[in-house]
Amino acid sequence: MASQTSQITVEKKKLEQAPLQLHYLGDRMLRQPCKRVTKIDNDIRQLAKEMLETMYTEDGIGLAAPQIGVNKQMLVVDSDPEDSTNPPLVLINPVIKRFGKELCVTQEGCLSIPKVFLDVVRPKAIEVTFKDENGRPQKLMADGLLSRVIQHEMDHLNGVMFVDRVDNAIALTQELQKQGFAVDAVQPIR
Ligand code: NI
């Protein structure tokens, strides 16, 4: 992807308090499909900035709008939050154009399901198109952790949580119960 000057500048650091409130598994907000963003304006850029600040404060590497109660097809990711020279990404109206054939298993977590970490199978590589925070169309081939985070966050835009994709039902029940989440909040998709 071409590197272009962003209108959003966010320091990669924890704030005393996250500007936006997270929603947690069991909240209906997280189960609604999100609406497309029709206009990328200063309000959207401000939202992206606060989503990034919230993500860094909560120690996440990705955050989707429904997680902070906003029903918009929008997410932020930073697969390398320790590297201040590598800017985060803002993906608006993202669409996965192609999945790689190869699958891989990776342990995932989610800011909306704190302390629950479980294995999820997903395609290794993706090609995704989206608009950036300045309304410019972008195309990205992602692999590894970045691909994983984008797929996880894009699920949120469709009301899907990573626990819906966990194959190991025993581990899933154990981990959710241990952290005080209702097992029936899971909506298995396979
Ligand atoms: Ni998540």
Task: Characterise the protein shown here.
The chain is of the alpha+beta class and 190 residues long. It starts with 41 loop residues before the first helix and ends in a 12-residue tail after the last helix. The strands form two sheets. It has a five-stranded antiparallel beta sheet, with helices on both faces. It has helices at 42-57, 144-157, 169-178; strands spanning 62-64, 74-77, 89-99, 103-108, 118-123, 126-131, 137-142. The model has no long low-confidence stretch (mean pLDDT 95). The site of nickel (II) ion has 5 residues, from α2.
State the CATH topology.
Answer: Peptide Deformylase
| Domains (count) | 1
Terminal-residue CA separation: 34 Å
Helix and strand content put the structural class at alpha+beta
Largest sheet: 5 strands, antiparallel
Average the pLDDT over all residues and give the rounded result.
Answer: 95
CATH architecture: Alpha-Beta Complex
How many individual β-strands?
A: 7
Sum up the overall morphology in one term.
Answer: globular
The first-level CATH class is given as Alpha Beta
Which consecutive residue ranges, at least 5 long each, have pLDDT under 50? none
Order of helices and strands: HEEEEEEEHH
Biggest sheet, spatial arrangement of strands: 1-2-3-6-7
CATH superfamily: Peptide deformylase
Bound molecules: nickel (II) ion
